Amino acid sequence: MVGPGTGVAPFRAALQERLCEANVLFFGCRSESKDFFFRSEWELMVEAGGLTLFTAFSRDQEEKVYVQHRVREKAALLWDLICRRKACFYIAGNAKQMPASVCDSLKEVFQQEGGVSADAAAQMLAAMEKTSRLQSETWS
């Protein structure tokens, strides 16, 4: 799941529903102190063992960090979840650059961890979409 800014709202509901299952959320926003939506709820879910949370606060340091950077950093975990455990991958948020950037990062994960070509990685992503294991809800 990737939900920068207000894109995190649908994942909040999904995680509340699925708290008993293992979930991974990549959350990004500009500032941890101003924009960390539902922080206390995420922390409770982490403490309960129902959520692994990775954050990206783009304006809290000199070099901007976005959710797609965190996706690449967690390549081994994502490869295991998606390719071995058949996890689903959901993206929600602003439709400008984020969804394409996250998908590009996911293809890089497939190439790095799976040792596949760029074409094969793109085909893997397309297959996930076709089988509804990759879904996106974006707006502008």
UniProtKB/TrEMBL annotation:
Residues 1-103 form the Oxidoreductase FAD/NAD(P)-binding domain. Keywords: Cytoplasm, FAD, Flavoprotein, FMN, NADP, Oxidoreductase. One of its GO terms (molecular function) is flavin adenine dinucleotide binding. The keyword NADP applies. This is Oxidoreductase FAD/NAD(P)-binding domain-containing protein. Signal peptide: none annotated. It comes from Oryzias sinensis (Chinese medaka). The keyword Phosphoprotein does not apply.
